[in-house]
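Researcher: Here's a chain I'd like modeled. Treat it as a single chain, no partners, no ligands.
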Amino acid sequence: MRNNINSEELRSLLIPLPPLEEQKRIVARIEHEQSLVNANKE
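Model: Modeled as a single isolated chain. Structure tokens:
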């Protein structure tokens, strides 16, 4: 069993990502939730 991956194998992986607009919505949601958490810490 192998527990590592070489750089060539890593470069060949296709990692699916949502469209940029969806990524931006996700980031905005996380930032909003993080601000709520931070506000509750104070």
